[in-house]
Amino acid sequence: MSGPKNCRARTAIVTLIVLLCPFAWAQVVTPKSAVPAEVKPELPADTLGRSSPRGAVLGFLAAARKGNTAIAALYLNTPFRGADAEALAHQLAVVLDRRLPARLNQLSDKPEGSLPDPLKPDEDLVGTITTANGDLDILVERVDRGKMGKVWLFSRNTLQSIPEVFEELGTPPVERVLPEFLIKTRFATIPLFEWLAILCVPSLYLLTGLLGRLIGWAVGACRRYLFRNTGPTNPRFLPPPIRLLLVALSIYWLMSKVGLSLLARQFWTTAIFIIVTIASTWLLMLLNRWGEGYAVAHRPSMSESAAVLRLARRVINGLLFFAAVLFTLHHFGVNPTAALAGLGVGGIAVALAAQKTLENVIAGISLIADHAVHVGDTLKLGDIVGAVEDVGLRSTRIRTMDRTVVSVPNGQIANMSLETLSARDKFWFHPLVGLRYETTPAQLRSIVTGVHELLTAHPKLDSLSVRVNFLRLGDSSVDVEVFAYVFAIDWVDFLEIQGELLLSVMDIIKQTGAEIAFPSQTMYLAAHSSDKLAHLIPEFVGAGGREAFPDERDLHH
Q: What does pTM read for this prediction?
């Protein structure tokens, strides 16, 4: 009993040593004098959001919009303090609000900035404004504030030109046109007239619809007057994507004429981008559908490829939608690399899961593109014989001779030998006529000549293909081969012609006095000394006492 226990103990000890060896080896390899790497303390995040160019600009605009010039002055790299710094902050806010292009979404959100100039890594461009003295770059620079870390502030060189640019500004056009209460009244820090402008966008869309109806009515009236066309309806103009593009164009034109604030221009610029992206994608999808319908309706050769065209249209629509999403993410500064990688992994998983389905779809596209199978064809596919009723992307439906429907996967059809019976330009008439061995050579020559003349003179046979030959001496017949091609409309027509030809061949054989043989066998019986066969001998003895041997007229099996 001690043997197994000692074995278990030794096994446990060895296992423990193996498990502890890595730790022991680590203690031996690691020198005791090794000093751990110094970990730098993490700097506290800036409470004003000045750790990136975008955070600094948006924080400054938010503080200025709330009228908190003391906080706004903290975003300036200026030697001024107190009231002078607040006045400069107010002037900068007004200049940016009137002149800065609406590209805030393109500002870098990284602590190191976008690095537009490698020679000036601590400087980033916010935008360029037009002044009386030329273009002025609005820059932010990264300033080291000691224990507070590095923060982004408006550049000192930019701030030097701000007072001069501020003097050039006049009254905004919107303030000269609209009543004062629409400008001074604010909801959520947004003026009342901007809220009203947002509510007017659906009205613009409805006006474009009314414009389309008016154009359609005018074109319909001109067509009825000029061409005496009494069509029941007027043509439709301005589909929804075109109407959306008109709305975007109207907003862009109004925004250029009305002096809006920077945040309002940023909002409307983003709205225009979204509307144009949706309208363009929608319009391309409509053109894709129109192209599919035109190909099916006006190209007879493409009508049988409707399933492939439908799949191609859907794939193109999916690609258009995916491209629109990627373009939108790029516009808003979102890196789509992770999304693309996830979609790639997901696509591989879906492809592996739907391997058979994809195989059938690709095989269906190949069959349709090669015009190997058409609706109405009579096919012989293995043991299946029938007419094709539908050629889909995944399977092909065949109506068999017993009127059942068989759905065969396209992948199976692509890997099998396919015989299209209805594609024959001629039908093969190839009977093998067996004559009795009593047929004389003269009768045989007469039969061959008569059948040849019959086939050559027939109007629905290819006379050049006619061949009638004495083929061989068979086991129970003299065989004559008949070979010819028949011009028939279909299989049923061929069967009717074949039946008439066979009856004519039988008439020729009968006229010559010959007969058609059928499988027979001649048995020769001899007398044996065995008692088991003795009783069979009298049955085959003739009147003259001679043994009669039955021939094929007497015994047929």
A: 0.59
Question: Do 327 and 320 meet the contact criterion of CB atoms below 8 Å apart?
Answer: no
Same domain, 200 and 346: yes
Same domain, 2 and 83: no
Amino acid at 276: V
For residue 424, the number of C-alpha atoms closer than 13 Å in the C-beta half-sphere is: 19
| Contacts by 347-353, CB closer than 8 A, 24 or more apart | none
CA atoms of 97 and 261, how far apart (whole Å) = 5
> What is the Cα–Cα distance from 141 to 149, expressed in whole angstroms?
14
3-state DSSP: the chain helix, strand, coil percent, rounded to 5?
A: 55, 15, 30
141 within some domain:
yes
The residue behind tokens 């004062």 is: 180
pLDDT > 70? residue 294: yes
Q: How many residues does the chain have?
A: 557
Among left, alpha and beta (phi > 0; psi -120 to 50; other), residue 49 is left
Write the pLDDT tens digit of every residue in 211-270. 888 887 887 777 777 776 665 567 777 888 999 999 999 888 888 777 777 888 888 888
Residue for token pair 């028949």: 486
Same domain, 346 and 213: yes
**Hey, which residues does 434 pair with through a beta bridge?**
479
Domain count, the chain: 6
Q: How far, in Å, are 329, 479, 556 from residue 519 at the CA level?
A: 84, 12, 8
Q: Given this model, what pLDDT does residue 24 score?
A: 37
- What is the Cα–Cα distance from 304 to 82, expressed in whole angstroms? 81
What domain range includes position 269? 193-351
Same domain, 273 and 410: no
Q: What is the DSSP string of 431-468?
A: -EEEE-TT--HHHHHHHHHHHHHHHHH-TTB-GGG-EE
Q: In terms of C-beta density within 10 A (0-12 exposed, 13-18 middle, 19 or more buried), how is residue 165 classed?
A: buried
Pair (462, 526) in one structural domain: no
For 444-456, give one letter per residue: b (16+ CB within 10 A) or e.
bebbbebbbebbe
pLDDT of residue 547: 41
> pLDDT tens for residues 102-135?
888 888 888 888 877 777 888 899 989 888 888 8
